[in-house]
Amino acid sequence: GGDHTITYPILQAVAEKHGPVGLVHVDAHTDTGDRALGEKIYHGTPFRRCVEEGLLACSRVVQIGIRGSSYDPDPYTYCRDQGFRVVPAEECWRKSLAPLMGEVRKQMGDKPLYISFDIDGLDPAYAPGTGTPEIAGLTPAQALEIIRGCKGLNIVGCDLVEVAPMYDVSGNTALLGANLLFEMLCALPGVKTT
């Protein structure tokens, strides 16, 4: 629930305890805009604010599933300039993301990691109940591969955002969101799942 703005104050609190953290960010958008509708704090700007405040270990930030509309002609430039790894959706099409997550695991190491999952990272065929749907996204199976691929890492927090049930009369988006959040909770350190 909530829009992606909620991740900004959460990461402020997390960084206060753990210092700058790595980030696995699943989304259709980078959410690194400088301003939107004249505002610096908006659901399209939280990760730029986090970079500005030193909340992220930028060499350990991975954005997966990025695609779709943007306010910038090259929406990945800012991210790559910060040292983020950007994995556009088209690099994920028609394949397992287990190999990618093997690379991400090495990149994250044993340092603190936060998972931020925007439901619009998934294709709207599976999750239409969101404010900014973008076609050609990830599948639910790929979402599970990403989350389960983080199990055993030093996860210090997670969120799942941008679910808008009123845009999905079937209820599938809310069901998918709840299940993905459950999977994230199961991936937290110390949780026994067997």
UniProtKB/TrEMBL annotation:
GO process terms (BP): putrescine biosynthetic process from arginine, via agmatine
Listed InterPro entries: Ureohydrolase (IPR006035), Ureohydrolase_dom_sf (IPR023696), Ureohydrolase_Mn_BS (IPR020855)
Annotated signal sequence range: none
Keyword terms: Hydrolase, Metal-binding
Name of one Pfam family that matches: Arginase
SUPFAM superfamilies per the UniProt record, alphabetical: Arginase/deacetylase (SSF52768)
Keyword field contains Hydrolase: yes
Keyword Chloroplast part of the UniProt annotation: no
GO MF entries: agmatinase activity; metal ion binding
Family statement: Belongs to the arginase family. Agmatinase subfamily.
Protein name according to UniProt: SPEB protein
Organism the protein comes from: Podilymbus podiceps
Record gene name: Agmat
